[in-house]
């Protein structure tokens, strides 16, 4: 029983650290997230944070994975819903795009993209997350084709890759706060492009 309690407490402690790290990113940006700053927010020591994560890169990756797991649940619920294929595709796009310039998940993505060239475990973890979005979008498009809502013979893998690349570009512009790039305009452009990518002849 004691061992079970320790494992449960450890899991809760880890979850609390990840949640607080995401909050810190939203409030202060990624540059302000250090092991010592996170420890101070949690009322613990930097060594305690290092015990769980080992390095800032690992912490960032764990925070991203934790955030993405919640999005995966939302995405799977969306795909399992009763809405039509067009409505589901719109919901998928809405879920993918950042909420605004201070979106912590997207701030993390941009930071970690810059680190993947020299960090193979990080590259593999990001590829796994990307694969989940790609496969679910392919599945959504394929269902729309079967239902006659999207173009017959649509190359679902290629269209999904194109759409995700577009969404990445629009999302980056929103997060970086570029002129004229906000969530509403990004959503309009994404939906317009999406319609052209899947439309029937």
UniProtKB/TrEMBL annotation:
Domain of life: Bacteria
Keywords carried by this UniProt record: DNA-binding, Repressor, Transcription, Transcription regulation
InterPro entries: BetI_C, Homeodomain-like_sf, HTH_TetR, Tet_transcr_reg_TetR-rel_C_sf
Pfam families per the UniProt record, alphabetical: TetR_C_6 (PF13977), TetR_N (PF00440)
Protein's name according to its UniProt entry: TetR/AcrR family transcriptional regulator
Xref: PANTHER family: HTH-TYPE TRANSCRIPTIONAL REPRESSOR NEMR, TRANSCRIPTIONAL REGULATORY PROTEIN
Organism for this UniProt entry: Streptomyces yanii
PROSITE patterns membership: HTH_TETR_2
HTH tetR-type domain residues: 11-71
DNA-binding residue intervals: 34-53
Lineage of the organism: Bacteria, Bacillati, Actinomycetota, Actinomycetes, Kitasatosporales
Gene3D superfamilies in UniProt: Tetracycline Repressor, domain 2 (1.10.357.10)
């Amino acid at each position: 029983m004691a061992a079970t309690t320790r494992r449960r407490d450890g899991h809760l402690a880890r979850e609390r650290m990840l949640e607080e790290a995401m909050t810190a990113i939203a409030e202060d940006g990624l540059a302000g997230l250090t092991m010592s700053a996170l420890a101070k927010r949690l009322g613990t020591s930097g060594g305690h944070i290092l015990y769980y994560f080992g390095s800032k890169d690992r912490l960032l990756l764990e925070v991203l994975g934790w955030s993405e797991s919640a999005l995966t649940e939302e995405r799977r619920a969306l795909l399992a819903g009763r809405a039509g294929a067009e409505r589901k595709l719109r919901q998928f796009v809405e879920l993918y795009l950042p909420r605004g310039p201070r979106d912590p998940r997207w701030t993390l993505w941009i930071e970690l993209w810059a680190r993947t060239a020299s960090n193979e475990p990080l590259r593999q973890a990001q590829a796994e997350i990307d694969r989940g979005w790609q496969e679910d979008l392919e599945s959504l498009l394929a269902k729309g084709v079967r239902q006659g809502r999207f173009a017959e013979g649509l190359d679902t893998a290629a269209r999904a890759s194109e759409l995700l690349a577009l969404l990445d570009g629009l999302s980056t512009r929103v997060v970086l706060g570029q002129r004229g790039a906000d969530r509403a305009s990004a959503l309009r452009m994404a939906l317009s492009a999406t319609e052209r990518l899947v439309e029937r002849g």
